[in-house]
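Researcher: I'm preparing a figure for a lab meeting and need a structural model of a single chain. I don't have an experimental structure, so a prediction will have to do for now. The sequence is pasted below. Please return the structure as tokens so I can convert it later.
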Amino acid sequence: MNKLEKLFDNHPILISFALMTICLVRVMLLRDFSPSNELRYLSIADEALRDGHFFAFFNQGVAYADKPPLYFWLIMFCRKVFGTHSMLALCMFSYVPALVIIRVMDSWVRPEGALRRAAMALMAGTCALFLGSSVFLRMDMLMCMFIVLSLYSFHLLYSGEGNRKIQRLLLPVWIFMGLFTKGPVGILTPIVGILCFLIVKRDWKGLGEYLGWRTWGVMAALCALWFTAVYLDGGKDYLNNLLFHQTVDRAVNAYHHKQPLWYYLISVWYSVAPYCLLLAGAVVCSFLKTDGRARTDSELLFLTVTASTFVMLSVFSGKLAIYLMPVFPFMVYLFPLILRRFGWKTWMGWALAAPAALFAVLGLGAALLFGVFGNASLLEDLLKDSPYLVRGWALAGMATLGLFNLLALVSRIRKKPWERTVTAMACSMLLAAFCASGVMPEVNVYTAYGSLCAAVPENGDVVTLHVRRPENMDVYLGRDVVDFAKDIDAFLASDYVEDTADSPALGTFTLVVKESKVNSDERLKAFVGGCSVSRVGQWCVAVKSR
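Model: Understood. Here is the structure written out token by token.
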């Protein structure tokens, strides 16, 4: 055995993490903050630092009780340490929790052999939504980590492993930290999962032992401290908003992201792609009995957590695919437990071969389409707003995705160990991300606001039209914007255009508007024609001098 093989046998998880990091750190370094959530979180953190709020948060002066304070504290901490919002540093609060989740699950399940451990780690890390969430700025991965830690502490208590006194304390602390990171799902997922597990086991004494006064007492004490601080910082109305409007109202009759009951039955397939068929099959198998081996407690816990969380989130009115994040680690690591009980089955090979074939066709087909026909009029409309699709790095990403899935398919056809198939599929995702990140600076121009704001002069008002969530541009501009939403008539009738003697805005100002809107409205085109104009991606930056 050479040194490389010995290193892999001794540290398969570490090597898997190294591969993931090499492929994803380039994405973290080159991407810009998304306008939808990331820029808003940064703006809220800046406002909190400026106004001295640490428990009650505001976005443009409006109470923002949607999220608990932990994640904002992390953003504020990085802002103070680095003097700016560092994308790489902030991504670590998603990426490191992702690695912790995989490491805990590996220690919990203990898959047999280095190759299997590495394959399972890569499978967990490259489920589509899990992979994306590990490099985006959201609370979900951090909350998921605390949920996994809380359930692992419960497992250690139930199985009699580890230091019992420490785990008794850690169980409620981890549950509270899940709540403190994202909200009610952070506390409901582990509690409902444990409750269902104990009911299925008919362990009625366990209800008092693991979900008894100690657990609830610690959580109640921590919540009391938090809610008191919220009341002192934000007042009664903010506390009421946090406790009721952002919990009960969202669960029963959501004002955002309202979706039908069956939403997750659809979203789960692309969320855990390309392993969706395999993982769904493992969940179904876990419900079945075998003559040879009974379910282990770990398998039963994984199944009850997956099923109970899925049902609970489906009942809630507000739904997003990413809300299902706490289920993904348990779905993935349920598979090796199913293997121990059932052994390898023919359907498992097909469950890997089918998505490998699909991704091979999609990847190679896209590379051929954009590489050969990139200048054809057929693709003109698509490439108008996405010209980066025909760049070399993008084509390399598509080809890599296709080629490695083709290797995975060949591996299945030749009946090689399934771990090799999974490793090839995982590498297709990681290497495609690495290659595609080469066009990230150009993607940023079309999907983010950093390049756009860099083109805005330092002085004068900034006016926006047909810009999504422009209020959070203050992170880049250092000043608020005047947003006319989609009302072109209101803008053209405003003092910015009607240059009257008593106009409050006689100075220079900058209009940021979609170029397509300028071209489709003659009045707006005439106004912009009298300005100094620059173009950034799909945006028109028009500076009007007075």
